[in-house]
Amino acid sequence: MIKRINWYNQAVYEVFRPELDRRARMSPVISDNMAPTVNVGDFIIAVPADRYEGEGLYIVDGNLYRVQSSGSVKRSELWLMRDNPLYTPRDVVTYEWFCAHVLGYVTGIVRIIDPRFFEHRARALEAEA
Description:
Layout: H1 10-16, E1 25-28, E2 43-48, E3 56-60, E4 63-69, E5 77-81, E6 90-94, H2 95-101, E7 102-110, H3 116-128
Antiparallel strand pairs: 1-2, 2-7, 3-4, 3-7, 4-5, 5-6
């Protein structure tokens, strides 16, 4: 569960810093509810959000969801969906509820292939401090 969006690891931040604006934050994925789209061990890049901006991945109450409009003309209901079939596939919430509980919009997914690079960079940053 993601309580808030924050830099997870200074080494990861240093590598991706040129690509991120001041509002973007990187956080590790610790739940498999969105697998195989986003897996445990991946990182998400997210920006703060306070409303529905269109279909996409959002952090809502600390959990990652694919959010989509129910298709109603008034946009009064939104679907919170999980990609992993082991979880309840969809919850329906009101637009007002969503706006009160959304924390961020996911703009990117980073899949780490070789974590040794980040471990090495973290040790180098510690040595500099």
